[in-house]
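Structure ticket #2291
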Amino acid sequence: MLEYLKNLLGIGKRKELLLEAIRKGSYIIDVRTPQEYRMGHIQQAVNIPLELISKNAEKIAKIGKPVITCCQSGARSGRAANRLRRKGIPEVLNGGGWVSLKDLIREA
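Resolution: structure written out below.
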């Protein structure tokens, strides 16, 4: 239970995995709607809404970088990460909410 809470709060293994992916020059995908994205986003993030993520999986796979998904809270980005893994993209992480991921990028 303690490990689950650490990962949920971004202070456990999940945080280290995200930092490592960021340092490798990960491809960051913001899966929110275009309207949400326009209201604020991570500068280097690409906006691919959740409903289009599966259709873009082949293009994403060709990029050849670790992938980090983000959204408002982490729920949609978690679904997006799962969809990409099912499409055969091995190195995909749920970055959670975009604001906390933006802070983590500064830390890297």
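Closing remark: Confidence is low (pLDDT under 50) at residues 4-10.
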